[in-house]
Fold these 2 entries.
Entry 1:
Amino acid sequence: MSLWRRLLRDRMAMIGLTIILGFVLIAIFAPLLANHADEIYDLAPMDRLQPPSADHWFGTDRVGGDIYSRLLFGTRITLATAVVGVGAAMLVGVPLGLLAAFSDGWVGASIMRASDIFLSIPQVVLAITIAQTLGPSIINVILALSVTFWPWFTRLVAAEARALRREIFVEACSALGANSARVLFLHVLPNLSSPLIVRTTLSMGYAILTAAALGFLGLGAQAPSPEWGRTIAESREFLPDAWWYATAPGLAIFLVVMGFNLLGDGLRDLLDPRLRRSQPRRRAVTVPQSAPIEVAAE
Amino acid sequence: MPRALAATGHRAGQFVVTLLGVVVIMFLVQAVVPADPAALLAGQSATPDQIAAIRTQYGLDQPIPIQFLHYIERLVTGDLGTSLFTARPVLNDLVERLPATMELAITAMVVSLAVGIPLGVVAATHRNSLLDHALRLVTVSGFAVASFWLAIMMQLLFVMRLGWLPLSGRIEGSAPPHFTGFYLLDSVIALDPGRLLSALLHLALPAATLAFPVTATIVRFTRAGMLDGLSRSSVRYLDAMGLPRHVIIWKYVLRGALTSVTTQIGLLSGALLGGSVVVEAIFDWPGLGYYVVNSVVMFDYNAILGATLWIAAVYIVINMLVDFGQALIDPRVSAR
Amino acid sequence: MVVPSFRAQALLLAALLVSFTPLSPTRAQSTENVLRVGNGSEINSLDPAVQDVARLTVKMNTYDPLYRWLGNPPQMVPCLATSYTESPDGLTYTVSLAHGARFHYGTEVTADDVVYSMERLLALKQGSARFFLPLVAPGTTKAMDKYTVQFTLKQPAAPFAGLLAELYVVNATLAKAHEQNGDWSTAWLSSHEAGSGPYHVTQYDPAVGWYAERFKDYVLGWPANAPDGLRFRTIRETNSQTMALMRGDIDFFLGSISTDQFDKLAKMPNLVVMQEPHQRLFLINFNNKKPPFTDIHVRRAFSYAFDYAGLIHGLEQDKITRDPVPMPPGVIGYPKDATGFTYDLAKAKAELAQAEVPVDKPVTIYAMTGFPMPEQAAEILQAGLRKLGVTANIVAETWPTLADKCRNPDTAPDIMPIWASANYADPHTWAGEMYDSTRWGSYATCSYYKNPEVDTLLHKAFASQEPSERAELYEQANRIIMNDAPSIFVSNEIWINVRNKRVQGYEFTPVGNGNYLKPIWLQH
């Protein structure tokens, strides 16, 4: 468990982890923490667009809803969307990556080609097309996320698994007659867990940003859902007077994404064997390998 | 140079395959659409007969694979179909809107490089100083902030509170005479400082929004590349030669760091193209991103398909140009 | 304040950037003799035959109809026509055209152009075609001579003369020259203008807007100081609209100004507030063909579960007024003593208890994307229904998709908030367009309400030439409809807008939502 101890010593990563845990707790205990939990879906038209006060900590929205309470419930939507979306992308992307790495000839080549093609469309463009085509809803946002995120996992797994394939133990297993699925899932996959954990953590942040962008463009959750991107879109009509309207949900997105990024950066420093190996001891700085990809993903 | 020719041919082949793949994906996505494109085309009060006629006319009654082949057939001749919304050839719309997006993206890229590289150098030379930590905070924020929120907050501050900049649009009043479609260039050519200023002021916020995450990436890469270079023995040699420190840093070390930055430009252009979708929608910027959002909202099939294809093509071409440029600078790259 | 600091910044930047060239004023446009108008949605086509309600501006200012509705309350005023006669059986209308009216491209407006425009409308079946399709058969409109057109109707129709304001005349010679494969020149006319109206389009970019020069030879003449041109800019965001008005970047905004921004605009010294009675109903349609809305008690229960005051006084801050009738007040046939439904959950529960069709599944409310009021009304209804124990989901879809779904009762939305505007100044434009079951098939009839008694009353009123009889018939029909509650009748609008001080002569007309700008002149 020296890994865990080393992670504990990484101050930035711990800040990230704390933020994430905080949001998870908020999501779980939203009904207890909210001071207007009953009003999430109820209207108070006469109480609309009130600035922050003792009663409404972050002010009220266009139909008199309490922004603080809605923010708490929005956490559930945000985390669930990102977890399910990225999870589904892994479920599709990881097996495909393994397949690509371990099958020679056209199967592997066409999987890689397909992932290239998906990556040649800017992610937001593909995601909005999918989300709108299927109709605006949270489920379809999740679908759009998984369709646009799987190639990243496929490429990562394929690259790593190819390297492993050359390593002796896989060949040894095959020579001993283990069937290939067994080799893949029992021997290769566990060895990929480190880069996968890093990639997944970093993907979470971008999945949240993408989902929020879809919500902002009106392609995600519908009224009166307290989804954050949607709330920010609603607020535009009431600026600059209702300055509080967009502020809180925007900061919430910022914090939670920051949390995942800090943790992901920390984990990468600790876990990514490729990076560790390629780095001489004296070079203290890690080259942010995935950063541009992440930006491109946005 | 037969090898270079073969490489170019290979590249062109990949380009075509990728674009075909994009069309396949978009066709698959659109095959599950709930609304009937023929009915949308026909207009509000069309009779069932009329809708059927339009379905036949546009080939929408045929199976998806056949429609796909027809689309490819027309694509070869440069025909992307007609937009339902603007009732004009999609290609016209796309060509018309490309300069607006390119002007925005190039400005953002130039700003990011101009700001990001010096900051990255300073962060590396002042490693672990307060400045370095502050810059790290900014770059980490660059990846975490939602661009649409940043845009709105900047509008709130710089437009609504301070009144320094225009809220949206590309220019005040009429556009400069059309030479290139880039308003900055066109107003310079027309010697029109009023329009140039207006175009610059309108560019400021959207370009800044778009540039923020890109700048963050460039700062990180420059910093890492610089630290790598500074730790090399050649630096100690130059130092021993008595070269001034700033010459070593800004001339020798930076040059090495820049090669790692340039590899990112291709990927970052994808970020700019993707980011422009949201940014253009917020700033009413009449470019490709705005066109995509509009077409998607209006279920404008040909336009969505054409725009996606177009954006993918632009992205691939930029990446090819970046690779090509790198090969010119650094012969080792072409071996890849 | 906002303006000087912008100027100062602008000048400073300008000085830095272009210090070598003489400065031209940054806001040269505001002294320009051009009327600058903001428009809320993109103008996607210049074709007068395909435009819908949201994009009336082009056709109303660059094309001419035979008659125009002007003033408030609207009066029918000759435009390209000078007079019309109606045969005693009400089936033939003979219209005389003005002499000397010219198209922007030289030729005179003749009867042939009118005939072509009518045939084109009927063939394309879009936009205003829905008014003529039930009345005029293709090929029956005749040019009697150069200046006389004869329309032959399938059935007598009292509002027909009023509908002539919806027939915009296209330059037939020009249009025919650009036809491709019998497309009635739709491709060409979508981006070229071929009218005879007060302004002449010279630049058009769907993404940005359009510019039209004043047509100096316009047949009806011009006021002194009329603008040299008209510049339309698409400004979609509420905030951009408000700021453009405040800073004087535009003189006028066509479309509804956000309620919440209005007070700020009203305080600006460069803007003048305008307020007029309007005829634009807001209602929430049920799909009467789909259970549970086949049951009158369910519809009535839902009508009692809507917080009218919450929308009108709360969210809309009294910029709309309660109207329980499917017709704006002041129109003939309006039952003046009508009170309609109130927000009363006890009564709602009582109605629901009487319902024979159970409301055991969630209902869906369809809100138009991008329009705050339908969305907020959907939320209010949803909150009210929750208190009745009914679950409602809100789905946002774009207007084209919804309009498409409204074509037939199987796909028409369960519940949909919608506006109803005056298409012509005749009582028939209200209940007649919405609740006559023989008109089924467009968004106007998306309640798919059928009551034979109402049909009979509406048909009689449509054919009758006697105003007092018509008033009586519409009033009876309205009362029955209100009791049947095929829709929740919410409100009528007050038209509130601002204009820059330099804009003079503007007159609002409910028909056409105030999009006619020809009377405007600019004060310097």
Entry 2:
Amino acid sequence: MHPGSEHVCQLWLSSVTIDWGVRGNSRLHLTRRRFATQLLLLVLVVCSLSARAEESFERVNVVDPYLELRTGPGRGYPITTIAERGELVEILRRRTDWFKIRTARGQEGWVVREQMERTLTEAGVKTSFRDVLVEDYLRRKLEFGFAYGQFDFDPILTARVGYRLHENFLLELTLSQVPGDFSSTTLTYVSIMSQPYPDSDWSPYFSLGYGKFNNKPKATLVSAIETDADLANAGIGVRYYLTRQFVARLEFKQHVALINFSRSDSFSEWSLGISAFF
Amino acid sequence: MKKTLNLILLALLLGSVVTTPAPAQTPTPVIQPEVERRNIRIPKINVDDIEIGLYGGILSVQDFGANSVSQVRVAYHLTEDFFIEGTFAHSTVSDDSFRSLGIPIFTQPDTSLDYYHLSVGYNLFPGEIFFGKDWAMTSAVYLIAGAGNVKFNNENNTAFNFGIGIRVLPKDWLAIRVEMRDMLFESDVLGKNEIKHNFEMTLGLAVYF
């Protein structure tokens, strides 16, 4: 991006803020204000990007007889030029398994990871553009995921965030929603997961959780009341390492809702999900 | 009492320091190896597999007409073929036509429709689009499908979606996307429980991070 773009961005920002602050508070201006907020967001995003464009790029030495430079990041794009052995090339960006590089002659193009793996850094060290491997994921702390399943006879959607406390233990926060025929239920959980064999591709696990249960009947039902309750669960499941930073999870959970001193309900849940670790 | 305790603690601490064995004297090597230290560091590269965008368009809600819809989407590109995408959307639905017949459906004339989805996309036809004679932009026609939740008239329902779209990249970090989708969910808002088809057409601008 052009070096002057940062100033343009600042100008934009200030003009948008003035427009935002000075106008009156009629309804028309409120919609304008909302529009201004959206615009502000967009400009912020673009500005943060242009600021990033100023940094210097990593340079590597070509070891293969040549690197093939394509017009786009995909196997089908035509090869327009090459970079020869011994040439120092700049790496501009990476998208999935493709690297955008600039040759010493200033030509740009996309190179596949397999070819980039055999390049050397300026210091003569082998580069490390390999994939994330199974052992890497035990060192990663944070995990995000989604799951879809069956909660008694209703579908359940779950979003989860996990923090790895130890190789064998994961602390997890989950939010689930059960949109049933007569009511919709929200489950919030804090749970601990134990993985006895964390480094195998198929890794079984056990989990225990405590949380809250909220059940809201549909508005079309007559004289139905909202229910809040404490919730506990025990689960068993298996994790399968897919590729890069992704893990698939299949699990079975038994939930117990403690509605009051004399009444408790139990539910069973099956779910299949995908998680990514960072 | 406290003072004596402190004294004892101090004494113990000092004792432990004194009693630690001194490290054994290492013998001086006969040959001093001259190794040049290599400067090893992990290469820093902009990995921009994440795409964040703002979208706007028209959502046609079955039985209730078409309304504007605004969305925020976050996508992660897994490979050159597949991506996963989360969508959060907001729209407002009005029951004006029912109300004019004297049968209001909602408690208020306008009700909100919010949904979130997690979808998987497949870049079916990657390619290039030529604009004029100097400008080539990478592009892709993709298929997308997923599941999520829709909150319509204060009721939550599971929703499924599928669609087709085109993505054009005028810059490596910027994408323009046009998409058509159908969102399906069960609703009993008109008394009978049935599956509703809700077509949606959106245009959006997304940046890669």
